[in-house]
TrEMBL record:
Residues 26-161 form the KANL3/Tex30 alpha/beta hydrolase-like domain. The lineage of its organism: Bacteria, Bacillati, Actinomycetota, Actinomycetes, Pseudonocardiales. PANTHER family: TESTIS DEVELOPMENT PROTEIN PRTD, TESTIS-EXPRESSED PROTEIN 30. It comes from Pseudonocardia alni. Coiled coil: none annotated. This is KANL3/Tex30 alpha/beta hydrolase-like domain-containing protein. InterPro entries: AB_hydrolase_fold, KANL3/Tex30_Abhydrolase, NSL3/Tex30.
Amino acid sequence: MTAAREVDTPRGPARVTLHRAGSPRGLLLLGHGAGGGVDAPDLVTATAAATAAGFDVGLVEQPYRVSGRRAPAPAGHLDEAWLAVVAAVRPGHDGPLVVGGRSSGARVACRTATTAGAAAVLCLAFPVHPPGRPERTRAPELEAAGVPVLVVQGRSDRFGVPGDGPDRRVVLLDGDHGLTKQHDLLGSAVGEWLATLTR
């Protein structure tokens, strides 16, 4: 079953599309990339894998996207809106809360995981640095998540490829930042990892 709702945030209304699992054991909230939407192929695959693993999944559209803008809001605005969505959607869901997203959405999830009370973070195509600018690293955001992290990344991602670390597992797929290949492996990795959080 799927249902959409708007959520008021300090940055305007966000939209959450909730995909319900048959017998939910947890909640996964996923955000989109900077210029994309929640219909990105990797988000669709992760949603299917998560509901099959017993997680309700909320696909979160940031207020700037809901209002029709393509240019992303500043990081602080994204984080503020995200935390308002978490506070609105979390009640009524038992089990662990997992947050995540693709690219920019993964960064938001890492920055806010502790404040949100998340048990883990799922990162799809985490942008380690801008293309060709490895000195402008965003790795500290990933390292500061404070909870177990699964990263699914394209081997040839021009935004960089993070390595494994304490409480961080990295799964590499063929392809680049779009994660358009090997969706069977993406789904398996996400489903198996989520299952470990409810054992």
